[in-house]
């Protein structure tokens, strides 16, 4: 298998965590200006130019949640990222979407706005994104009280999504101190070997974080 990705990307990390959890063999295809052949092949495979993209033989799989679902079927391992229990599986998929859509998306609003020319920035949109993060932080804090993982008692695809989402969100719009359960969950995620590996692999690229990476984590 080949994974077209960049180690500093939160959505790439989500899939990398899933791969590392089950020690699934794959070849990384770095997406950066130093690897123009990879960029050209990636854009031909997926013209939307969103990463990551997984290639497994003749199959091309895009969108992070779909990639993790595909891996669970085509390359299952000891860590079942999608629970066998149908209700827990539905809950894992729900939480996966919550972390992607209600944590990662507003977090990236800050980042993308910082990359725009000054004249094209959207301060009101950034304000709205901050309000969205405050709302979901409070909801997640209540949900995570008394829990170790997002769903049930085991690490699932929801946690694959949560780790990079909360990692970067706390850099961008800090999780408040009062959200003790959510902060504890983030710390638990960062201690997971698969997540720690992603964080370490991305360290050389922290200077590229447009908001300025904090001197922590």
Report what the structure shows.
- With 217 residues, the chain is an alpha+beta fold.
- Strands 2-1-3-4 form a four-stranded mixed beta sheet, sandwiched between helices.
- β3 and β4 form a beta hairpin.
- α1 crosses α8 and α5 crosses α7.
- The longest helix is centred in the middle third of the chain and has 30 residues.
- The mean pLDDT is 97.
Spatial ordering of strands, largest sheet: 2-1-3-4
Shape label = globular
H-E order: EHEHEEHHHHHH
The average pLDDT is 97
Query: In terms of structural class, how would the helical and strand content be classed?
Result: alpha+beta
Number of strands: 4
Distance between the termini: 30 Å
Main sheet?
4 strands, mixed
Beta-sheet strand percentage?
A: 5-15%
Residues in helices, as a percent range: 55-70%
Spans of at least 5 consecutive residues with low confidence: none
What radius of gyration results from the CA coordinates?
17 Å
Give the key terms.
8 helices, four-stranded mixed β-sheet, 57% helix
What would you say about this model in short?
By secondary structure, the protein is of the alpha+beta class. The protein has eight helices and four strands.
């Amino acid at each position: 298998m080949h994974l077209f990705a960049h180690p500093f990307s939160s959505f790439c990390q989500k899939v990398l965590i899933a791969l590392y959890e089950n020690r699934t063999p794959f070849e990384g295809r770095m997406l950066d200006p130093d690897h123009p052949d990879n960029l050209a092949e990636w854009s031909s495979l997926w013209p939307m130019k969103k990463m990551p993209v997984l290639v497994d033989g003749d199959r091309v799989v895009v969108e992070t949640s779909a990639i993790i679902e595909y891996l669970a079927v085509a390359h299952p391992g000891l860590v079942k990222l999608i629970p066998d229990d149908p209700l827990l599986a539905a809950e894992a998929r729900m939480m996966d979407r919550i972390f992607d859509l209600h944590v990662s998306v507003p977090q990236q609003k800050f980042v993308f706005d910082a990359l725009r020319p000054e004249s094209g920035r959207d301060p009101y949109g950034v304000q709205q994104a901050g309000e969205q993060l405050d709302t979901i932080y409070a909801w997640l804090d209540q949900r995570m009280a008394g829990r170790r993982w997002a769903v049930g008692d085991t690490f699932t695809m929801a946690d694959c999504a949560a780790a990079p989402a909360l990692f970067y969100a706390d850099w961008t719009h800090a999780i408040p101190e009062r959200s003790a359960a959510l902060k504890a969950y983030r710390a638990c995620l960062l201690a997971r070997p698969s997540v720690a590996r992603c964080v370490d692999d991305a360290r050389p690229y922290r200077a590229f974080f447009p908001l300025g990476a904090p001197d922590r984590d």
